[in-house]
Amino acid sequence: MPQNTYQSTDTTCQSTHTATCHKPHKDVQRHSYHTPRFYQPALTPKDSIEGSAWEVIYNHISYFHKVDLAYVELGCAVLWIESSDILPVLTRLKSLGYETLSEMSAIDKLALDKDESGADKSSGQFELFYQLHALNSSFKDKRRIRIKCAINEVEQVDSIHSLFSLALWSEREVYDMFGIRFRNHPNLSRLLMPRDWVGHPLLRSYPLQGDEYASWYEVDKIFGKEYREVIGAEQRDSARIDENEVRNFARIDELGEQSDPLYIEASKSLFVRNISKEKKEILSKRK
Q: By three-state DSSP, how is residue 17 classified?
């Protein structure tokens, strides 16, 4: 196996163990440092719902509605149902004691190939999920249950705002970020993005740094398109470093312009030490 070689300004390190070598810092922000390129994370274990604390709930739901898949994952029961059954299933769960909707959102899996094994019910579609929580003490061993369904790109689902008022906002957020529409919602409009925004930012097909419309939105909105050449496009590169930002915001010795290094809070808080330069001491060794 060829050895990996890393060069710095003063030394050359050759080793088969990359963790012990010096790595150059040039453009390090552009590199994927979280995981190796072909790393496959271990999937969380999915236990059988039979014999669990949720078995009675599952039997009740499956008696009236079709449940495609059911399991227990990380202390939470997960039920996959048909999208047409969302409203009646959640209505039944609320009557059983799951009276709080703690979370609702979606995942874009449109670009994935259809999973023929059936392990991933939403591959090639949107995964829509509802997280319910039971507060009653009798549910202490089965507090959480998650309802999931798969919908295609143009499919609409029933709004559940009549059951949970939180859905008034959550469904607007899902529509804003993914473009999923909910029938009978009283005000299905954007929640986070401007009303005239183009596109849905959490779609995997949406550019990471925004499209042309996003780059010029503020300029076009405030000044007009004729000012594009004058002002320039908005900087959306997360790896870009602006030297002016360091000079403007840094106030620590040689890194920034000379100024009084005292904290403003030093005279107001009992827990902030006065770090006056006159009292600064450079240690020759660790204490």
A: coil
Establish if 229 belongs to a structural domain: no
**What is the tally of structural domains in the chain?**
1
Residue 92 backbone dihedrals phi, psi, to 5 degrees? -70, -40
Contact 159, 90 (CB under 8 A): no
From 241, 268, 264, 246, select the one nearest 256 (Cα to Cα). 246
Query: Domain range for residue 119?
Result: 55-183
Q: How many residues does the chain have?
A: 287
Beta carbons of 238 and 29 less than 8 angstroms apart: yes
What sign results for the dihedral spanned by CA atoms 91, 93, 99, 103? Answer: negative
What SS3 class is residue 82? Answer: coil
pTM beyond cutoff 0.90:
no
Burial of 158 (0-12, 13-18, 19+ CB in 10 A): middle
Domain with residue 67: its CATH number is: 3.30.460.80
Question: Within a domain: residue 222?
Answer: no
Give the 3-state secondary structure of residue 58.
helix
Whether residue 209 lies inside any domain: the answer is no
Q: Which two tokens stand for residue 254?
A: 């040689």
How crowded is residue 145: how many other Cβ atoms within 10 Å of its Cβ? 24
The residues facing 163 across adjacent strands are none
Domain presence at residue 195: no
Q: pLDDT (tens digit, 9 = 90+) per residue, 3-43? A: 444 344 344 444 444 444 445 555 555 555 566 767 777 88
DSSP string covering 146-201, please?
EEEEEE-TT--EE--TTT-TTHHHHHHHHHHHH---EET-TT---SSS-TT--S-T
Q: Are 196 and 220 in contact (CB under 8 A)?
A: no
